[in-house]
Design brief:
Chain lengths: 305, 361
Amino acid sequence: MSFALGVALLAVVTAVTCALPGTYVVLRRSSMLVDAISHAVLPGIVLGYLLTRDLDSPVLILGAALAGMLVVLGAEWLGRTGLLTGDAPQGLIFPALFSIGVILVTLNAANVHLDTHAVLVGDLNLAAWDQLEIAGLALGPRYLYLMLGMLVLNAVVLALLHRTLTLTTFDPVFARTIGIRSGLVNAVFMLLVALTVTAAYNAAGAILVIALVVIPPATARLLTDRLPVMLGFAAGIAAAGALAGFWLAYVLDAATSAGMATFYGLAFGVVLLATRLRRREGREMVRNARASTPGAPSRGLRRLS
Amino acid sequence: MSDLAAGVWDTAAVATGVLAELPSLAQVWGNHTYRMVVLGTTTIGLVAGALGSFAYLRRQSLISDVISHAALPGTLVVFLAAVALGLDGRNMGGLIAGAIVVGTLAVLAANAIERLTVLRIDAAMAIVLATFFGVGMLLMRIVTNGDFPGKGGIQDYLFGNASTITRADLATSLTVGGVALAIMLVYWREFALRTFDPDLAATLGMRTRLVDTLMFTTIVIATVIGVKAVGLVLMVAFVVTPPAAARQWTQSLPAMVALAGAIGAVGSALGAYLSIALGTVPTGPVIVLTLFAILLLSLLASPRRSVLLRAARRRRARRALQAELTREVRAHEARAQRVAEQRVPEQRVPEQRVPEQGAQP
């Protein structure tokens, strides 16, 4: 497998892995929580590294996911006290955790070879550097297989939780009435999101993970009102955008994740404009049809007669 | 494990060593760099805290996170344009102007997405944040790859660097922050009405779109003046934390805005002093943790809304209710017993008869 092909594949798999839980994230109005989780990842990684001294250890992913959960549960608790309004609880906890991460890195600069810049921005090319080779056969970047594992995990958990998640997303009151423990479902789902964010940070960087999780599902939401269709569209847009963004970054010689985020944003803007224009066109067609048939009653009159 | 212990131990050793020889206020004041760090961050904390109150009360605190990320492409575009025109790319006023314009565009874009589509404000903010930041990172790569005079330090916008605050930077942030505070004071009534009763504001014929744009512009200013010193990741804490802490102690808008400004200023000064004392620790994170400590203190200790006092009050109420219920139950039982005792003779009568009846035949 050539290096460029490996990077492109990694980009596609990462994007689809993020888009699946992202669909529910957008519908559950937790989009900015992803931003908070992705920043909390830093102290989790640093602590995990100090424990294991190994940057590739799975303990790092687990530690980072737990730090992400700390933001979710902490924000929930702060919100439940009723002392803080709006989205403030999320904005209070993640900067504090991120600060702890930055301070830990600077204090242990001698032992921690962690570049905070790389953690934030990510580099797909670096993530794809470590190639998996079995019996002399180059099988592509090692990280690709980790992301594939995450993709499978996401697909399985979401398939198992599909009914419960849909219910708690669209009608939380009814879900509670029929005995679904929505708090537990939410915790499990957010843990899955935190794991996904952590696994993807290596490729996308903590900040741009939010582009992968939120923008393709949000674009899909503009195109459909049905959940299964939205899931399919989100995955399709994510994969297509990953390839296009990869190409954009390749041409501009920039970080792949930045190219992907820009491309997803542009695609969202185009879809938004197109759907607006089509709706306006539809309204105009109705108006023209009404104007061209003389003597036809106006809408209000028709309803009366 | 031992490394973690060693790390913690080192940190503790550094902390105790520092505490033993804290620099005096005069020492900090005497050093130009230290003085600029303290004055600069205090200004940022004051302006961000006071103006952040409106974002907090409108339940859109995280908009400042969107603004700080959008400030990156704003500053970089101005930097590239200035260099292309042969001007000084590092002019603080120009960079701030670019950040304000693009930051305001980001806010308008987020609100427009919410108005025009089925998506909610959280998704709209996330989309705008990610897109603007993606563009910023592309521009950043162009700047770092290219050969531009004065491009050194442009990366500071990511994490901030308080020790690079110059006299001109301080003057710029004082001026721009002063303008924002002046706008707030001039339009105080409009801001307050629009914040607490948006529908009434519209009914009274207020030009709500204009007032909103003005209000968000002040929030944009409050956010971008700190980006160079604090970094775009942490700036949100300067805008959210002081109002959230101030809200616990106050009941009126003027008091809240004043207290949030004071908490921002004092917390920043204290944090800056601590980071100078600790030596190797970056200023922004220490200030954020100081502000967070003030918030926790406010949540735990404010007289009317304290979490602890409320828990104690709830426990007292529960105990009182329990005592009352037990009293009621006892009284009920006693009454039932009295009734039972009164009835006993009546019930005994047939019982006594039974043996008599049985004895007769």
